Amino acid sequence: xxxxxxxxxxxxxxxxxxxxxxxxxxxxxxxxxxxxxxxxxxxxxxxxxxxxxxxxxxxxxxxxxxxxxxxxxxxxxxxxxxxxxxxxxxxxxxxxxxxxxxxxxxxxxxxxxxxxxxxxxxxxxxxxxxxxxxxxxxxxxxxxxxxxxxxxxxxxxxxxxxxxxxxxxxxxxxxxxxxxxxxxxxxxxxxxxxxxxxxxxxxxxxxxxxxxxxxxxxxxxxxxxxxxxxxx
Length: 232
Description:
This protein has no helices and 22 strands. The protein has strands at 2-5, 11-14, 18-22, 40-48, 53-59, 63-70, 73-77, 82-85, 89-94, 99-105, 112-119, 129-134, 145-149, 157-158, 164-170, 175-179, 185-192, 194-197, 200-203, 207-210, 215-220, 224-231. The strands form four sheets. It has a seven-stranded mixed β-sheet, with no helix packed on it. It has a seven-stranded antiparallel β-sheet with strand order 2-3-4-11-6-9-12, with no helix packed on it. Strands 5-10-7-8 form a four-stranded antiparallel β-sheet, with no helix packed on it. 35% of the residues are buried.
């Protein structure tokens, strides 16, 4: 069973400095039909104007992943981390018992475009931690590159949940066949381009919840970038 979440049906807010789309209920956007999918709680697609961003704010008991599509995301947190996340890099924070952090567009001239992703942790109260890794495009072209997992498999960042996140870049006509683990579900999120997911057309901003499917067939209709979540 595949249930499509169209880009235009997402929650939307334009704050001037921030243009954001919420796949699931978040902040002032609330829809009881879209509170998350399995352990996936938030997918926000954010576009931030130059030289501005999110001032210091708290988090706890959440696995937070940032995936930058364009521009540079400057990060600073109460654990002492200060870094810049660029396209190809994945940042993971386990908020655990509590952290504060800020996120800003690092450029004074160029916009920032990124996904902020929240995954519910397997258990609460873990010690907060931080990780950031680069995954070159060459490792994502025509294949699913594992970028987050519970055990750091294949050099992925480590999350406190039995879930995996893959990223891929597809050319027009290119196809990936992926076998889902037994009893697992999936969420596909299209960042750019147009793809077929088991015959269903998804365009940039679209997502799809996948349940009771053994195999995923991902086909590029044009040059595309997408994320695939395996979820318990």
